Structure of Cytosolic protein:
Amino acid sequence: MKAFISRYFSNHSETSEQHKDEKLITHYYNAKHEELIRAVESLFPSPSEIVAVSKERGEITVKYKGKRRAFVVATIIMVRPFRIAVDFSVTTDSGGPVDLGFSRNLIINLYDELDGQFTRVDPS
């Protein structure tokens, strides 16, 4: 019950390596760091606005403008050569304390896009 409530009655979702929700577990890709940074940037076409990109820290911040507005932070970290971890943090700007799962679904869609472009690998 608590998982259901936190999934749909929150305005924030983020991924982590050991998340309770299997859909929000960090994804690892077999790719170059720079390729993944460019790919994540391309996930947010206009009217979304990329606020900042820090290639050194592997962080991209975005004002997402789609069905709803949200603030997205993408973190792209090279664990070792050709093993890149990608995490997302999404906070919706819905004007209320709930987004009915929008932030979670946005993360799942972003991962689906990356999964279609790059080979996922086991985190170990």
Remarks:
- The chain has one domain: 1-116.
- The first strand starts at residue 12 and ends at 14.
- The chain has three helices and seven strands.
- The radius of gyration is 14 Å.
